[in-house]
Amino acid sequence: MVIRRRDLDNARDFGRHVTQTTLLQDIEAGAEFNDVLPIVDVSERYEVAQAKQVSISGIWQPIAAEIRKNPTILPRLFGAFSSSQTQTNTGVSGINLTTVNTTDIPDGFTVVSGHQFTAQASGVYNLQFSAQLQTKNASDISIEFYLRKNGVDIPNSNTELDVKGGQKKTVAAWNFFCPLASGDYVQLVWYSADTNMELVAASGLTNPPRPNIPSVIVTLNSI
After folding, report:
1. b/e code 38-66 from CB counts within 10 Å (16+ = b)
2. In 3D, which of 187, 74, 170 has the Cα closest to residue 131?
3. Domain extents for the chain?
4. pLDDT attached to residue 69
């Protein structure tokens, strides 16, 4: 028997399909789970992992131990977040923490204090971001983006680019690979010596109506 997520109506149905009571029965019956452990809700998955055992190749062992040996059976975890607010520079002698105020897709990540992207499970994650930039300065001005993990700057994570002057929009967009333990968080930091530098949001776009433009979009997914 092969159980695939696409065979069910949605991810929540997939999670409900395998409960704490049916998990052992399905595994012992030889069910194949197409690269993911079929428990979608994170808290339920951990409860099962801590409380239940499965027979793998005839040997009883905790599910948690099997996950450590073969992490690909875990569900894909991800999160998507954005900000509808323009973010201004705090000053030439300080750094800025990129903030979000909208959770677009939460599944394995939470945001603390608007800027701490916090993992609910250990893994290696791909953090991708895009930010719409502008400066009121007439000349081109540089801006830097880099990562912090648990409040500590990550070495060699910084990148600098020039933003065109005269309020011409520039987009910064790239990605980082981040190994995170459960409870670890990352922050996207930016710095500019120009006090007029901004991460710019836009709304109310009409004629024709168009979607709002976030100042920043941040996504994370397990790899």
Report:
1. bbbeeeebbebbeeeebeeeeeeeebeeb
2. 170
3. 5-73, 78-222
4. 57
Q: Which fold has domain 78-222?
A: Jelly Rolls (2.60.120)
The dihedral through the CA atoms of 131, 157, 183, 21 has a sign that is: positive
What letter represents residue 68's amino acid? R
Q: List Cβ neighbours of 93 (8 Å cut-off, separation of 6 or more).
A: none
Contact between 149 and 169 (Cβ < 8 Å): no
- Backbone phi, psi, residue 214, to 5°: -70, 150
| Residue 216: pLDDT band with limits 50, 70, 90 | very high
DSSP assignment of 125-164 equals EEEEEEEEEEESSSS-EEEEEEEEETTEEPTT--EEEEE-
pLDDT score, position 177: 97
Query: What is the per-residue pLDDT across 23-32, written as a single tens digit (0 to 9) for each?
Result: 444 544 444 4
Backbone angles phi, psi at 145, to 5 degrees: -130, 135
CA distance 155 to 66: 33
* Sequence letter at residue 43: S
Closest to 177 in 3D by CA, of 221, 118, 119: 221
